[in-house]
Structures are given as structure tokens and as C-alpha cells.
Amino acid sequence: MSEYIRVLGRIGRIPDFIAPYHGFCETTRGVGLLVGRITDAAGALAPTLRRAARDGARAGDLGRALDGFMAEMLQSGAVASDLGPGNVVVAPGASGPRLVLVDGLGDRALIPVRQCSSLAHRHWLRRKHAQLSALIGAGG
Ligand SMILES: Nc1ncnc2c1ncn2[C@@H]1O[C@H](COP(=O)(O)OP(=O)(O)O)[C@@H](O)[C@H]1O
Ligand SMILES: [Mg+2]
């Protein structure tokens, strides 16, 4: 939740590449964070990036979506603790697929260096970009 507030403070809105925030709720497992449900064109849950890549989504389309996603992460300063392919889903967009982070927003490090340093954030994103590009087969 603190990262949602941080991003709002930085750029004045919650960008489309992060699941929209809807508040809190009580659950049988403790406090829950309510976020928007990201869907595919048919209204079902959007596939994760891992599944889309495995199911043969076009690498060029996913690569473009990944480039846009990473550029927005950098511009907004939004920090993620876990940018794995199971925490990013592929949603339909106006001009091809777009990626949305559904889990792992925020920095869980004891000393949240990436929240304080845009250089550290940039380096981290570059590494994640390369890893996810390799996964979808879109090169480095
Ligand atoms: N807001 C959402 N919209 C669509 N699918 C979601 C959303 N949140 C989670 N999912 C789906 O549920 C899976 C597990 O959710 P996640 O929050 O990553 O939990 P965990 O990592 O603790 O298992 C994701 O990989 C994704 O497929
Ligand atoms: Mg997850």
C-alpha cells in the first residue's frame, strides 16, 4: 500500500501498468489489499507473462509490451520487490498487449535503496528487463 501512495505522490495517479488499488478488506487470512481484476478480451483472468510466453504469444508483441512496461516503471519510479513472470499479466491494449503488475509492488528490502536511488532502480530494471526478455524469447 505504501508504494501505491508513493507513486501517487510522485506522479499524481496510479498508472495503467499497476493493478488499480481499491482499498482494504478483512479476510480469514488477515488484512487483504483489494485491487482491480485484470482480464483478457473475453473477460477471463488475464494470463501471466509466464503462461503467455509458454502458450506461444508472439514474442515481438510481448517484447514491445515489456519495453513499454519497463519504461513506465522507470518514469514513474514505481519499485517492485518481485518482478517475476508470474506477477505480471498480459492484458489487451489499444495497440497490442500491455503488461500489468499484479503482485510484488513495493520494496521489501531492509534498506530500500531503489526507492531512494534512481540509479539503483535503473540498474535493477535493466537486469529484470533482460531476464524477462530472455523468457519471452525477445532477445536481451
Ligand atoms: N489483479 C489481478 N488480475 C488478474 N489476475 C491476478 C490478479 N492478481 C493475481 N492474479 C493471478 O493470481 C496469481 C497469483 O497471484 P499473486 O498475487 O501473484 O499471489 P502469490 O504470488 O502470493 O501466489 C497471479 O500469478 C495471477 O495469475
Ligand atoms: Mg505472485
Structural description of this entry:
- The strands form two sheets. Strands 1-2 form a two-stranded antiparallel ribbon.
- α3 packs antiparallel against α5 (118-136).
- The chain has helices at residues 2-11, 49-54, 59-76, 113-116, 118-136, and strands at residues 21-27, 30-35, 88-93, 96-101.
- The model has no long low-confidence stretch (mean pLDDT 94).
- β3 and β4 form a beta hairpin.
- 41% of the residues lie in helices and 18% in strands.
- The protein has one domain (2-136).
- It is built from five helices and four strands.
- It binds adenosine-5'-diphosphate (ADP) and magnesium ion.
- Magnesium ion binds next to loops.
Could you provide a short overview of the structure?
The chain has 140 residues and is of the alpha+beta class.
Main sheet? 2 strands, antiparallel
Using the alpha-carbon principal axes, give the shape: globular
Q: DSSP strand (E) fraction?
A: 15-25%
Query: Which regions are unreliable across 5 or more consecutive residues at pLDDT < 50?
Result: none
Q: Which percent bin holds the helix content? A: 40-55%
- Count of domains: 1
**Span of the ends, CA to CA:** 32 Å
Strand order of the largest sheet: 1-2
By DSSP, the count of extended strands is: 4
Q: Overall pLDDT, averaged? A: 94
What ligands does this structure carry? adenosine-5'-diphosphate, magnesium ion
Order of H and E elements: HEEHHEEHH
Class by alpha and beta content: alpha+beta
What's the gyration radius in Å?
15 Å
Individual helix count: 5
